[in-house]
Amino acid sequence: MKKIISNRKAEGYIDIAVGIIALMMVLVVTLNIYTFFMLRQDLDTVSGFLIETATSEGSFGEEFDERCEELRSSFFEFDVVASADEYYNSTYERVQLGDKMTVTVSVHTYVRGVGAFKIPVTVSTTRSGISEKYWK
Questions:
Q1: Which residues share a beta bridge with 110?
Q2: What's the pTM value of the predicted model, to 2 decimals?
Q3: For 125, which of 4, 12, 24, 43 could close a Cys bridge (C-beta 3.0–4.6 Å)?
Q4: Residue 67, SS3?
Q5: How far apart are CA 24 and CA 9, in angstroms?
Q6: Is position 123 within any domain?
Q7: What total number of domains does the chain contain?
Q8: What is the separation of C-alpha 43 from the centre of its chain, rounded to a whole number of angstroms?
Q9: Average pLDDT of every residue of the chain
Q10: Which domain, by its residues, includes 43?
Q11: Cβ(111)–Cβ(90) below 8 Å
Q12: H helices present in 58-87, as ranges
């Protein structure tokens, strides 16, 4: 290493500069992967809370919306898609006991640290559960 740096042709300096740039690129990619991994864990937590609320209530009604807004203020802004295999009453989005309910939570973000380029990335997670409420 000392021999490369002390070379008078300046080739050693160029090699070291290119090596440092490559190392920084690897560091940026590693930090982005870590950020997306942590974001995915937060989304998994949020979707778990939302599906728990939806299954215990047996609907995607007011309680679900309130819990969703509460989690948005606690965590970050996210998109929610709630669905069920079959609705008992589509007006109130009620789900009968034993029917499957699904909640998908997603966030649209960008890969950071790549200069002027914006690379869009969507991170999402899906949770499902069984309705625990019987509607008469």
A1: 120
A2: 0.77
A3: 43
A4: helix
A5: 25
A6: yes
A7: 1
A8: 5
A9: 86
A10: 2-130
A11: no
A12: 62-74
Residues in the chain: 136
Bridge partners of residue 103, in order along the sequence: 82, 127
**Percent of the chain beyond pLDDT 90?**
43
Both tokens assigned to 103: 């909640």
Residue 52 falls inside a structural domain: yes
Q: What tokens appear for 123 in the block?
A: 């991170």
pLDDT at 29 over 80: yes
Burial 13-46 (b: 16+ CB within 10 A, else e): eeeeeeeeeeeeeeeeeeebeeeeeebeebbeeb
Positive or negative, the Cα torsion across 116, 117, 119, 120? positive
Tokens of 43: 């989304």
Q: Which two tokens stand for residue 100?
A: 């499957």
Residue pair 91/105 in contact by the 8 Å Cβ criterion: no
